[in-house]
Task: structure prediction
Amino acid sequence: MEFLLEPFTYSYMVKAIWVSALVGATCAFLSSYLMLKGWSLMGDALAHAIIPGVALAYLLGLPYAAGAFFAGILAALSMNIVKRKTRLREDTVIGLVFTTFFAIGLLLVSINPTSVNIQGIILGNILAISNEDALQVVIISFICLLVLVLKWRDLMAVFFDENHARALGLSVQPLQILFFTLLSAATVAALQTVGACLVIAMVVTPGATAYILTDRFNRLIVIAVLLGSITSAVGAYTSFFLNANPGGLIVTLQTLLFIAAFFFAPRHGLWAKHRATKMILKGNSHG
Amino acid sequence: MSKNSIQLENISVTYPNGHHALTGVTASIEAGSICGLVGVNGAGKSTLFKAIMGFVKPSTGRVTISGMAVKQALKQNLVCYVPQTEEVDWNFPVLVEDVVMMGRYGHMGFLRHPSKADHEAVTAALERTNMTEFRKRQIGELSGGQKKRVFVARALAQGGQIILLDEPFTGIDIKTEDALIILFRSLAAEGRLILVSTHNLGSVPSFCDDVMLINRTLLAHGPVETVFTQENLVKAFGGMLRHHQLVGADLHDDEDKRSITVLSDDERPLVFYGETGGQKITKHGNKE
Amino acid sequence: MDSLLAFFTEPLAHEFMQRALLMSVIIASVCSIFSCFLVLKGWSLMGDAVSHAVLPGLALAFVAGIPLAIGAFIAGLFCALATGYLKENSRVKEDAVMGIVFSGMFALGLVLITKIETDVHLLHVLFGNILGITQRDLIEAGIIALLCAVIMLVKRKDLMLYCFDPVHAGTIGLPVRLLHFGLLILLALTIVSALKAAGIILVVAMLIAPGAIGFLLARSFDHMLAIALAASLFSCISGTILSYHFDTATAPLIVVIQAFLFLLALLGTSLGTATRTIIKA
Result:
């Protein structure tokens, strides 16, 4: 028992666990929407595209969130321009822009290698997060969660049926912009816990797992948020014993839960579906 | 030339998720005619096409093409498919002649190096469809009717005897449609078999010789005059059809029992005129 | 004039630079050819996914004592197949499934590499290390790349037809499933060959940018291939030489040069259409 409680005697561990859980919850909330729309690549792209901003912010001693935001907006603008000017597919445009931004970030770091911990940005660094960075993460997460709790129904209406939402008198485009602002903010926060490469899991996997488990959107959100926060907390906690990268552990856990849901979910799981198909076929041969 | 035909024997298709797309379809389609495959979205039109092209394996029954199994017929380049306009990526960097040349790939060797015969076939197909002057255009630079004709030219270059047309008239104007109908008619007259999947009811009487009405199963099959009736269509389309009836005072000043029934699913409406709205079909558009 | 010549010849005095340049020519060729298919098929996310997913393969191959390239190839292919399987059997959208699978595999790889003592240097795998290429790496990558390039060039018409119109490919009796899985296998092999030089993340850029440049400028597929190849070779060679002189990381510089070429192509085509409309008016 004492052994299991040991992580809690270190303040850096306690901080890592609850900050992770908070970020996990925020990202999971957003994942409920994102994975329904086929925009998963956006999450991944944003996470990579903000790296030059983060690198510059650390080089100049600015808050890292500010640099990240700036780079994110620049990337979104570039994607928009390239998309309007060419007939390239959307996925090509996104891939092109985010890899370029990422390369610019690495180039900046390679010119001045000492001042930026690039491995921390790419792979996450929650166990060694500074108090200032932690504060930024907490503020971002709280604002996101607050907005989401207030506006989740409006966003649902917009994501489900834009025209219907418009008919209801909702302002669709501002709500979409709001969603992407929240997504980039959550991405900036998640950069600290799991790193750029794994942000996509945080903003896709919990929502997808919940989607297999339930048919109702409000339950989907609750399940996703629970999954996101618990896996993040547990991942950070176990990294103390396993001495492995906490981001890797968090996402591995999330993926394992997805696989479990895929096979064993009550109605939409593979097992349940196989049983149902067998029943239909049996019914046919009798009738 | 041996007779081209499609024989469907008790075809049922059930997808792995348990969805029964088609049940017990038996029909025989002969060469030299244009046969319309008519039904609502989800009625199984595309599933039947897939079965004829060998992309789905029927859970029961057998498809025979000109006396051969599907696989063998495909090997002999007998079957050609003309896709819907929306299915094609028009930004793809290929020229008109490249697309038509793709029809010849089945005739070429391992490296797909075109021979003299292949070039001749492409030129002939382009001429037949009046596309010669556009052969160096990138496919996105064409108009709606020209886009359609490129893929018909590809089918011609392929030399296939069985041509499957998927919604050939969506997104083109009626004049272009009439020109295409003339082309398809002459292709059928040369002994090809043309099967058209459509939910555009208005073009069926002027275009097709036979019609197959399907909704998860074959509801009716036969010459347009006898099968393409109001009762059968209402059966096939159920409530999906827009149905306007002009009757009595709206139509006549005198006591006349005849009425006009307009059935439409999209662009071109189908008009019935008669006592109970069923006997006589008013043809539209091009009368040969 | 002499100094300009020296700009190119001086780096070649070093053996590691000779190897780096040869390597950059190899990966430029194979990646640019594949990128044409990738861009036309709309598989950018697939490229991203497969390249991230090779990570656990590297770790496990080290444990099993087999060549790392084989482990990476199997892991990459597994990611593509698992995505297909999960997509077929659940109602989650394909892009979400792909994101879940590759991030899960990347995470597992990360845990394995930090846990097990391997000689896989994480930063080199992530960002590439073209200046540290050994003779053996060069031969390995060269063989894989040559194999892929020959297959893709010989069978380019079939692969192109499969990308353009898979239904037609099926009706004329082409083996559509074989082409599909063949393309996936080629993707995994291409990534494996470029991994040591470009790293997991930037290999995606090498797989998208040249094809996108070709797409902008070409009207037929063979032109697209030629333009992509030329753009890729130019960026890889100039990037390697410039990085030597300016002492920066090599792979990111190559990617930035590619992006610059793309920008030029974009400006060129928009200027072209602008002048055409002016002349017409």
